[in-house]
Amino acid sequence: MTVDFLEEKEFVFQCLVDSDPSTPATVRWYKTEPYGDLVRDEKPYVCVGLAKGLLIIAINPKCSVDCAKYLGEYKCVGDNGYSQDTQTITLSYRYRPPPTGEHITSQRFLF
User: Residue 26: which domain range?
Assistant: First the structure.
């Protein structure tokens, strides 16, 4: 997924895990670049909804330098105590010359 810092966007990623009710699954999001850290809420830019396996990243044109740290690869890990599965997504930067007029849009993506 490509991020354009000149537009406001909200990226919503959902990690769904199926498991037997007797072995409830957990979902965790990690930022794999550069350190593999567990993703935590950093409002207003990052919100992690563990109950539904959601990772929400908001990009605001006024925070382009600060928001750049949220680019990179994220890994969702689903674990039911017996087995584990992972899936990754990558947010990368796309350069675009500034528009002549101001144009702000909002988009939501659900995976």
Answer: 2-93
